[in-house]
UniProtKB/TrEMBL annotation:
This is O-antigen ligase. It comes from Pisciglobus halotolerans. Keywords: Membrane, Transmembrane, Transmembrane helix. The chain crosses the membrane at residues 31-48, 78-95, 102-121, 127-147, 159-180, 212-230, 235-250, 256-272, 279-297, 364-387, 399-417, 423-440. The keyword Transmembrane helix applies. The lineage of its organism: Bacteria, Bacillati, Bacillota, Bacilli, Lactobacillales.
Length: 457
């Protein structure tokens, strides 16, 4: 119990709580002094926390990025916080003389060099944008060096889910407070669904777009589901999970609804085969949630989602809300230009024809080219290699195992989103890699090694 209390009131958890209060006070008063206090609180926590827990501050405040700005047109303090984290971790590595594999250093240097090279590929790319892009991946790169216990995934997932839930609650109930409503309106773009008789507002938490908010909710929810299916879940995981389902549905995102259906289908099939008791708990909770929704919001969800799926027609362009047409524009534009196809048009450059691609794979190809994608992939694989070494796991990746849920949803849902260039992509990548290596089933080699150790004892 003492250990549990210590974890509950550790430095990073307290800084997240106090930091949330400072951001809320900024919304209420409009005073930027509270954002400075927020930055100082978060930065102090990263200085004082243990190396493996410093990343918790980044995880918690990822959904708050748009709300932590002096002015909407300026750089988010989340980017400043990420850069501060990278600097603190580099100092920690130097002071502690942390050993880093040479191949790991080379993989990052290669990635950084290519991104800087991309600045020369297009005069419209910005140094500030490239630095922000690199900072997101550098934070993950450095954090992975200090993940040494599989149980750390539970802490990371809960911290991220808590940050999403608290920020969503502030956005929901703050809309009834004039000063907070005014603050949100200063950067928020309203998204609505207008049916035959009603106008429905789409919820997006503290984000500016309900679809990008929905993918964050989806990754947080999938990580909690992985913990529960590994039989390591606690009451807080169920509470956070149910809250995130509600918030995700309020976004009225077709991507979220389809991905949620995929997630629940996987959960039901897996638990039906392996854990009927756990399946019973989840069915009771989902049934209760469904009954409450049916009583209080039947028309809202039924009409809005039905309209979203069917009102614009049944052809591919209508079902994808025009995205499939944009995808073909990008595919044609990239393949027609040899330079773009091989080396991309430069990170943080303009969109093709001023259109967002609505596809993670196409925007990565357009920005990086085939050469850049290969360099990025080698960095991701090296991260995974170091993580497996730190955790002493010889895991076996299987798309039919619950440890791959977040990876599957990340790959599937981002067919409709440009997540690769968003501030939260690095965090999602971190959660996916740690989740896979912490919860994946052991390979035959690892099982034999454990048996040999037990026999020697």
């Amino acid at each position: 119990m003492e250990s549990s209390k210590a974890r509950l009131f550790d430095v990073s958890n307290l800084s997240c709580l106090v930091g949330s209060l400072f951001v809320l006070l900024k919304m209420v008063t409009g005073s930027n002094i509270f954002l400075i206090l927020f930055l100082l609180t978060a930065g102090t926590a990263m200085l004082l926390e243990k190396s493996e827990h410093k990343i918790k501050v980044i995880l918690y405040f990822t959904p708050w990025a748009y709300a932590t700005k002096f002015y909407f047109t300026q750089t988010s303090l989340f980017t400043v916080l990420t850069l501060a984290y990278c600097l603190i971790m580099l100092l920690t590595i130097l002071l502690d003389r942390t050993q880093i594999p040479s191949y790991y250093v080379i993989s990052m240097l290669l990635f950084v060099s290519y991104i800087l090279f991309s600045l020369m590929m297009n005069a419209s790319t910005s140094l500030k944008g490239a630095v922000s892009f690199l900072a997101n991946f550098a934070a993950v790169y450095l954090a992975i060096l200090f993940v040494e216990k599989p149980d750390a995934f539970k802490t990371y997932a809960r911290t991220y889910a808590a940050g999403l839930t608290v920020s969503s609650l502030i956005a929901m109930f703050g809309s009834f407070i004039p000063t907070i409503r005014q603050y949100l309106d200063s950067y928020f773009t309203g998204y609505t669904v207008h049916t035959a008789g009603h106008l429905y507002n789409r919820f997006s938490g503290l984000d500016i777009d309900p679809n990008y908010y929905a993918i964050q909710v989806l990754i947080g929810l999938s990580c909690l589901v992985m913990i529960i299916m590994a039989r390591k879940g606690k009451a807080i995981d169920y509470v956070l999970g149910m809250a995130l389902i509600v918030f995700g549905l309020l976004s009225l995102s077709k991507m979220f609804l389809l991905s949620l259906g995929l997630l629940l289908s996987f959960v039901f099939l897996f638990l039906f085969k392996n854990d009927l008791k756990q399946l019973g708990k989840i069915l009771v909770l989902l049934t209760a949630l469904f009954c409450i929704g049916w009583v209080y919001a039947k028309d809202y969800f039924y009409e809005a989602f039905l309209f979203r799926f069917l009102s614009q027609g049944t052809d591919a362009s209508s079902l994808t809300t025009g995205r499939s047409t944009i995808w073909f524009h990008y595919l044609y534009g990239i393949t027609e230009n040899t330079k773009w196809m091989m080396f991309g048009n430069g990170v943080t450059g303009e969109y093709l024809n001023d259109e967002i691609s609505h596809n993670m794979y196409l925007i990565a190809w357009y920005y990086l080219g085939l050469v850049g994608i290969l360099i990025a992939l080698q960095l991701f694989f090296q991260m995974n290699t170091v993580l497996r070494s730190n955790l002493k796991r010889q895991t076996s990746l299987s798309f039919f195992h619950y440890s791959s849920i977040s990876l599957i949803l990340l790959l599937v849902a981002n067919f409709a989103l440009d997540s690769f260039i968003m501030h939260y992509f690095g965090v999602h990548l971190f959660l996916v890699l740690v989740g896979i290596n912490s919860l994946a089933k052991s390979s035959e080699f690892e099982k034999k090694s454990r048996l040999m150790m037990q026999s020697n004892e």
